[in-house]
Amino acid sequence: MEILRGGGVVGLPTETVYGLAGDAFNPLAVARIFEAKGRPLSDPLIVHLPEAGWLDRVALISSKEQRQLVDNLAAAFWPGPLTLLLPKHPELPDLVTAGSDRVAVRVTAHPLFQEVLRRLGSPLAAPSANRFGRISPTSAKDVHIELGKEIPLILDGGNCEHGVESTLVSLEGSAEQPTFSILRPGPITMDQLLQFGHVVIAERIVNSPGSLPGHYAPKKRLHIMDSDINLIPEGARVGLLAFTTSFQEKHQEYTAVEVLSPSIDLKEAAANFYGALRRLDQCNVDLIVAQPVPEEGLGVAIMDRLRRASYGSLHGTGHQSSEKATQ
Ligand code: TXA
Ligand code: MG
Q: What average pLDDT does range 193-217 have in this prediction?
């Protein structure tokens, strides 16, 4: 707590991925987050709350109708992996939102994160606790690998339940006929949002590098497997990121294999996804080949991350490309 009160930053578990947290109302702490991650100041941060009751400290909800809509969403999905883009409260430092007049807010379900928020008494800004453009951490050990040298403390809350980042949604249209624009697919699926209004998938948004291709990338080249696997150079040592085991049995020539879900369950696959990608990245392989997962429910979020992770490889810029592609 002393670290956070003094404007320091701490690695904390959430139900999605680990976050790098600092007091959202302390511009120095927020600046430290950007510095530790090597993240450009133009990429805004998500603000975390322990309960929806804190919302008015960071967001300005002007109309009764919008309040009703947010209350309905909060009742259905919070605490949990849904992040809402709302009008920003003027007192929240501009650094948090990179100058934008909208703030991304979520109520995390992780008991440890909630306890820290309540004890500190202030909302925490927290991006995923990885170096900018790299694989998000889903365990305290991963945070240590990514940012151990940069940060004084990491709280260990075990492995993250969901394993992919929260669904990021902006509210559009009128409050009576709301439209949700999904800026980043995640554990709260399109079907779950449909009961509250119209849903569209945003192609790409300004001010959100997490929505750019080339994010969430391993250091090794990564290809998504399709019918044309001729891209693999002869003699290359290949790591396989398989959705399920049946694939592994047919292809014995891989140097390393990670299976996301032996029981063919997308939730299990998501929870294992970043850890498996990270292990393959650390193995003695030249490139990683990923088997696509069914693009339904949580599979939408997994395929979104896989496509972004493979972007640099596809565009011939090679494995160091991820940094370049996202700066
Ligand atoms: O599950 C999660 O959301 C995790 C955990 C730690 O809460 N956090 C996370 O944060 O994934 P980060 O910073 O790695 O990704 C947040 C994404 C980025 O793509 C960022 O550009 C976008 O949300 N974002 C944040 N604030 C925004 C804003 N005001 N306007 C537009 N995009 C925003
Ligand atoms: Mg991130």
A: 74
The answer to whether residue 295 scores a pLDDT higher than 90 is yes
The better pLDDT of the pair 297, 233 is held by 297
Q: Residues near 143 by Cβ (< 8 Å), separated by ≥ 6?
A: 11, 18, 20, 129, 130, 137, 151, 154
The DSSP secondary-structure symbol of 165 reads P
Sheet with 238-242, side-by-side order of all strands: 221-224, 287-290, 238-242, 256-259
Place of tokens 């390393």: 256
Ligand 1 proximity of 326 Cβ (cutoff 6 Å): no
The pLDDT, as a whole number, for residue 233 is: 77
251 Cα to the center of ligand 2, angstroms: 33
Phi first, then psi: what are they for 213, rounded to 5°?
-65, 160
Entry pTM: 0.90
Sign of the CA dihedral with 36 first, then 37, 43, and 48 last: negative
Residue-wise pLDDT tens digits, 221-259: 999 987 555 567 778 899 999 998 876 555 558 899 999
pLDDT of residue 313: 66
The pLDDT value given to residue 216 = 76
The residue to mutate among 46, 105, 113, 136, having the most atoms of ligand 1 within 8 angstroms of its beta carbon, is 46
Mutate to test the pocket of ligand 1, among 82, 146, 168 (most ligand atoms within 8 A of CB): 168
Q: Which residues surround ligand 2, an ion (CB under 5 A)?
A: 128
Q: Whose CA is nearest to atom 31 of ligand 1?
A: 208
* Rounded CA separation 129/124 (Å): 13
CA-to-CA distance for 296 and 266, rounded, in angstroms?
9
Tell me which ligand sits closest to the C-alpha of residue 124: 1
Query: Mean of the pLDDT values across residues 18-24?
Result: 98
Residue 313 phi, psi dihedral angles, 5° rounding: -65, -45
